[in-house]
Amino acid sequence: MTFQLKNKIKQDTVWQVLLILAYFFLTFNFFNQRFGNQYALMKALLLISCQIFIWQVNITFLLPKLLLQKKHILYAVVLFTMVIIVAFVYQKVERYIIDSWKLSVREELLFPFDDPEFTGRNHRPNLKKLKRGFKLFESTYNLILFSVIALASTAYKMTTYSLKKENEASSLREEKVKSEMDFLKSQVNPHFLFNVLNNIYSLSFLKSDKTPDVVLQLSNMLRYMLYDTGTATVPLQKEIDYLNNFIGLHILKDDAIKDNIDINWDIQNSNLPIAPLLFAPFIENAFKHSHIEDETNGWIKISLSSSLDGQITFKVSNSQPLNNLSKDKQGGIGLENVKKRLNLQYKNKHSMVIHDSSKEYSIILNINTQ
Question: Does residue 155 sit in the same domain as residue 105?
Answer without folding.
Answer: yes
